[in-house]
Amino acid sequence: MDEKQTVKVSKFLARVLRHDPASIGITLDEAGWVDVDELIAASRRAGRRFSRADLDHVVADNNKKRYAFSEDGRRIRASQGHSVEVDLGLSPADPPAVLFHGTASTTLPIVLREGLKPMSRQDVHLSADVETAVRVGSRHGRPVVLAVDAAGLAATGHVFRVSANGVWLTDLVPPTHLRQHAH
């Protein structure tokens, strides 16, 4: 599977496993899982042909570890980023003192005024390192990195969870716990 095909399948999986499973006639269970064979067959009916080996390649080689197989390898799900309702079953975790969030410079005034909200997703996504935040912020323009006082927020009762691919999740971050980070 070449790089171009890998990216195409990965983007298709993001749409189907995070946002619109019904578009190919599948249903995710309450934890976001779908049977691999069902996914491949439904994708084929929708005009997207890929094999189990192709799927294995996309899951193993995705540098962001966006997808995961169940322990028995028979089911697959997105690691986080869902706009459809799922319960990833992640336990609360104590965050590091500071986490980071990348955004575009054009959204900075709104974020500093209103804080970070999940928008169309279930959670606000935070990273443990500045480099990831820069990469995320670059998707939508000139990146700005925000430092999140995660320890202070946790002390006020906010719950943090960490996904299988290391993304920190929380319901919202008020502006009082944000500051611009020089990178």
From TrEMBL:
GO biological process terms on file: tRNA splicing, via endonucleolytic cleavage and ligation
InterPro entries to which the protein is assigned, alphabetical: Ptrans_KptA/Tpt1 (IPR002745), RNA_2'-PTrans_C (IPR042081), RNA_2'-PTrans_KptA (IPR022928), RNA_2'-PTrans_N (IPR042080)
Keyword NAD belongs to the record: yes
Keywords: NAD, Transferase
Residues in coiled coil: none
EC number: 2.7.1.-
Transmembrane regions listed in the UniProt entry: none
Alphabetized Pfam families for the sequence: PTS_2-RNA
Matching SUPFAM superfamilies: ADP-ribosylation
Signal peptide per UniProt: none
Molecular function, one GO term: NAD+ poly-ADP-ribosyltransferase activity
NCBIfam families tied to this protein: PRK00819.1-4
Family statement drawn from the similarity comment of this UniProt entry: Belongs to the KptA/TPT1 family.
Function, in words: Removes the 2'-phosphate from RNA via an intermediate in which the phosphate is ADP-ribosylated by NAD followed by a presumed transesterification to release the RNA and generate ADP-ribose 1''-2''-cyclic phosphate (APPR>P). May function as an ADP-ribosylase.
Protein name, per record: Probable RNA 2'-phosphotransferase
Protein encoded by which gene: kptA
